[in-house]
UniProtKB/TrEMBL annotation:
One of its GO terms (molecular function) is arylformamidase activity. This is Kynurenine formamidase. GO terms for biological process: L-tryptophan catabolic process to kynurenine. InterPro entries: KFase/CYL, KFase_sf. It comes from the Bacteria.
Length: 317
């Protein structure tokens, strides 16, 4: 891995959407999600079924996180055992209440990445100076994404089922052509401006293996190629949501770089990335009724200057 080429070399000829939505843009390809796209999504609400796609924060079975990050910690501040303490606030009438707080990586659990979350070559999305990230993101934080919301037609691409596996394996890759083939096999082609939701079910291994899951960490996922990046650009894909921790194969098997698609899609094209979604119930239902498209609606929490924020996306069929 140490002798992997620099990202500036790998992506030397990669296309960008910088400037496409103006010099001040901070939501990138979400600009494709116009009112018409919201209505196109609404037309796929046919049965009144609602699926919430967030993983449980503080799941007793554990919170999968990117290596080096720690799971969210929830701490009880006030409960029935603390009200007799002289430090407890006092209110007339015998009012008691429970309070708690969490200490969490904003990139932990199901979340949206800000467009300024990842970069190379000293520039983030839209060409902003990477020094604008120092002390908090002055440009392209999660806040503009949270204000806009992400609403459109979603399509589930159940790559694990398409490959006839309970889950994809460590380092297993697939391409945009596989996504197209998966959609065709499911009976509904991918359309321009679709929000893509990719199921690998890889995190089942985390819940089976615990900490051993992190040994030789290399998630499965999309693998970088110039053709794939061009496909995302031509298809005007606004958003990619996956059930893995980081959306793409961790180490590109062709050049050894880590997460080049974060750079090519998020930093260069402005595609928003959302990770660690729980797609299991939705996938089961889609396999049952054959409807793989739905209204997708998500709004990460509004957090000033943040690099990402937790979200509980909805798929409505
Ligand atoms: C990294 O940026 C390393 O990962 P993620 O996109 O999962 O936050």
């Amino acid at each position: 891995m140490a002798d992997a080429p620099d990202m500036t070399e790998v992506l030397a000829d990669a296309p960008t959407n910088w400037g496409k939505w103006g010099d001040d843009d901070e939501v990138g390809a979400l600009n494709y999600l116009t009112a018409d796209e919201v209505l196109r999504g609404v037309r796929h609400v046919r049965q009144g079924k609602v699926f919430t796609l967030q993983r449980l924060i503080g799941d007793p079975k554990g919170d999968p996180v990117w290596p080096g990050r720690s799971p969210a910690e929830r701490t009880m501040i006030l409960d029935e055992s603390t009200w007799d303490s002289p430090d407890a606030p006092q209110f007339p009438g015998g009012l008691h209440y429970a309070d708690d707080k969490i200490n969490a990586f904003l990139q932990g659990s199901t979340q949206y990445d800000a467009l300024g979350h990842v970069w190379y070559g000293g520039q983030i999305w839209n060409g902003y100076d990477a020094r604008s990230t120092v002390g908090g993101l002055d440009r392209a934080s999660v806040e503009p994404i949270a204000r806009k919301g992400v609403v459109g037609r979603g399509i589930l691409l159940d790559v694990a089922r398409f490959r006839g596996k309970p889950y994809l394996e460590k380092g297993e890759t697939f391409t945009h052509e596989d996504l197209v083939a998966c959609a065709e096999a499911q009976g509904t082609p991918i359309e321009k401006r679709d929000v893509l939701l990719i199921r690998t079910n890889f995190l089942q291994l985390f819940f089976e293996q615990g900490q051993a899951f992190y040994e030789g960490f290399n998630e499965p996922g999309l693998v970088y190629s110039p053709e794939l990046v061009r496909w995302f650009q031509d298809m005007e894909i606004p958003n990619l949501t996956t059930d893995t921790i980081a959306n793409e194969v961790t180490y590109d098997p062709n050049n050894g770089t880590a997460l080049p698609l974060h750079c090519a899609l998020m930093r260069n094209l402005g595609v928003t990335l959302s990770e660690i979604a729980d797609l299991e119930e939705l996938a089961e239902d889609c396999a049952g009724d054959g409807q793989y498209t739905f209204l997708y609606a998500a709004a990460p929490l509004k957090i000033h200057q943040a690099t990402g924020a937790p979200v509980n996306p909805l798929a409505v069929k």
